[in-house]
Protein: SDR family oxidoreductase
Organism: Funiculus sociatus GB2-A5
Amino acid sequence: MGRSLEGKVAVVTGGSKGLGQAYAKRLAEDGADIAIAATSLAQETEKMVKDAGRKAEVSVCDVSSPEDVSKFAALVMEKFGRCDILVNNAGIYPYQSFDQMNFDDWRKMMAVNLDSLFLMCKAFLPSMKQNGCGRIINLSSTVSWLVIPDYTHYTTTKMGVIGFTRALASEVGEFGITVNAIAPGLVRTGTTETNSPPEIFDMVAARQAIKRTATPDDVVGAVSFLASDDAAFMTGQTLIVDGGLARA
Ligand SMILES: NC(=O)c1ccc[n+]([C@@H]2O[C@H](COP(=O)([O-])OP(=O)(O)OC[C@H]3O[C@@H](n4cnc5c(N)ncnc54)[C@H](O)[C@@H]3O)[C@@H](O)[C@H]2O)c1
């Protein structure tokens, strides 16, 4: 494996487990030092990053809180002095019917899955602009195209991620900064295993062109590519990594 990100610093939100942990590990293997913001201390991920020979900084930080994000960004600047890659991965996805959802539920989904992008990009774009380069990678989902019941709030945020990605890309390209998204299908993580009925994995796999359930390892390559110099002329895009589920 090449060390294409040698000397770079990557911020990965939600890097304590699941997809975020896999992204942090892969970006470290690619050569980047890693800062992680999550709801709990990401000690397991910290060890993975250090085992890859890179520095790790892990923080408990609510990505929907302006105060927390501001403190986290100050810490990253103090420890690493720069941010080259920002992976906006932290997200929540509880099933809830529109009927049962109250305004607080709706607001929480918007805050964690969308306000976080605003806050993190505001916090780290100045460093990227100063350095004349940067990579922002946002997490959308194939729910943006599939109709899944009990996901009105979640689908709204993940479609919103695509709009945010396209619009911000048009404003920061002149500074050498790209903004892209990836849209995974159903990936087996601790949370999807707990949240979802067990039969959902086989049902979804049967609808994919590639008939097996994805693991986080199936989606890390897309993030590694978007973070690399090879993706320097690609921006505003959403890569669908779902084994052929959405066929958008
Ligand atoms: N797993 C899938 O099937 C799948 C598919 C498509 C998209 N996604 C998206 O990928 C991302 C990660 O999914 P996952 O399955 O790995 O989830 P996960 O539940 O395993 O991990 C979520 C991470 O986000 C962090 N997080 C949650 N709320 C936070 C907050 N307020 N502040 C800071 N950190 C917070 C958690 O600490 C954790 O590290 C999410 O944005 C999700 O919508 C997941």
Notes: The chain has a mean pLDDT of 96. The two ends are 31 Å apart (CA to CA). The beta strands are 9-13, 33-38, 56-60, 85-88, 134-139, 177-184, 238-241.
